[in-house]
Specification:
Distance between the termini: 48 Å
Order of helices and strands: HHHHHEEHHHHH
Strand content: under 5%
Number of helices: 10
Helix content: over 70%
Largest sheet: 2 strands, antiparallel
Structural class: mainly alpha
Organism: Ktedonobacter racemifer DSM 44963
Protein name: Cobalt transport protein
Strand order of the largest sheet: 1-2
Keywords: Cell membrane, Membrane, Transmembrane, Transmembrane helix
Radius of gyration: 24 Å
Pfam families: CbiQ
Number of strands: 2
Subcellular location: Membrane
């Protein structure tokens, strides 16, 4: 029985086409489902919200915490892929100092690893080296040639693993900023950088409305189900029920997107009235923001960041860790 099934799946055109479609569509589509399942709506709200804690990282000057992801992200672009993973280990140190809870650590780890897995899988399918032999783990049959990829190769997976380190470094350095910095501190830091205050306001508004948008979407889906609209997802083995489910989801999109768009426009209008009522941007000087003075912890953090930058540039100038094509 098992031998016949293997013969059908791996040695017939129909079986190879079925496996190819599963590898090409089911695996990438499962990553967002895993993300939503592990993180959830409340998890996204907590992930993009400030968490007050008496830690070393929380006490740092907001300007340092904003420069940190910019500097680390730039260094990750300049370094070769193997040294990027050493840089990733360095970005774990602030998370250890923050002493995040298990729930928050699980959310952050999910947000970092899920896009990384997607990059590795996509490169495994579409990356083709210019020279050398390609070893395919699975070769797509002629029925899938229209996709534009010959199959999943070990070289592509390795290349995706090399490139995804930069994504994880940038995500790790950025999420620590969101966790330990108040929105008012972000605006103050942009003001001290001589940047327009509207830039800091735009960043904080975007961080605020992203979890709200996800929460509103969930509430609208629940309202539709309460009013009798069936959005129950069938099991993966219930193949005859999937076309009807996809049709119901497509039919529900206008009902979902129109209230969501109207609600977003109303929130934007309310935010604009609040900003005008508080005379935002009328004066070039700000008097309502808390001033931050450089302290001992700030100098320690600046020295550590400067040391990492200096070591990285030295390795690049010595042609030890410079990025290779």
């Amino acid at each position: 029985m098992i031998a016949n099934l293997q013969q059908f799946l791996f040695h017939t055109l129909i079986g190879e086409t079925l496996i190819g479609y599963l590898l090409m569509f089911v695996v990438p589509l499962s990553l967002p489902i895993i993300l939503v399942t592990l993180v959830g709506v409340q998890g996204v709200r907590h992930l993009f919200s400030y968490e007050p804690r008496p830690t070393f990282v929380h006490s740092l000057d907001p300007r340092i915490k904003i420069l940190y992801p910019l500097v680390i992200g730039t260094l990750s672009v300049l370094l070769n892929w193997n040294f990027v993973y050493l840089l990733l280990i360095i970005t774990v140190i602030p998370w250890i100092l923050v002493k995040a809870s298990f729930v928050r650590a699980r959310l952050v780890l999910t947000m970092i690893l899920t896009p990384a897995l997607g990059i590795v899988w996509s490169q495994g399918m579409f990356y083709v080296p210019l020279t050398g032999h390609i070893h395919f783990l699975f070769t797509f049959p002629p029925t899938l040639n229209w996709i534009g990829t010959p199959g999943i190769s070990t070289e592509g997976l390795l290349y995706g693993l090399q490139q995804t380190g930069r994504v994880m470094v940038a995500a790790s350095a950025t999420l620590i900023l969101l966790l330990t910095t108040k929105p008012s501190e972000v605006i103050w830091a942009f003001y001290k950088f001589r940047m327009p205050p509207a830039v800091g306001l735009a960043v904080t508004v975007a961080l605020r409305f992203l979890p709200q948008l996800i929460e509103r979407t969930t509430v609208l889906l629940q309202v539709m189900q309460v009013r009798g609209y069936n959005l129950t997802r069938p099991r993966w083995w219930e193949l005859p029920a999937w076309p009807d489910y996809i049709g119901r989801v497509c039919a529900a999109l206008p009902t979902l997107t129109v209230p969501l768009l109207i609600g977003s426009l109303r929130s934007t209008s309310t935010m604009a009235m609040v900003v005008d009522a508080r005379a935002f941007g009328v004066s070039k000087t700000r008097g309502s923001l808390q001033e931050h003075r450089l302290a001992k912890n700030d100098y320690v953090a600046i020295g550590a960041l400067a040391l990492v930058t200096l070591i990285t540039l030295t390795l690049i100038l010595l042609h030890i860790a410079n990025r290779q094509a």
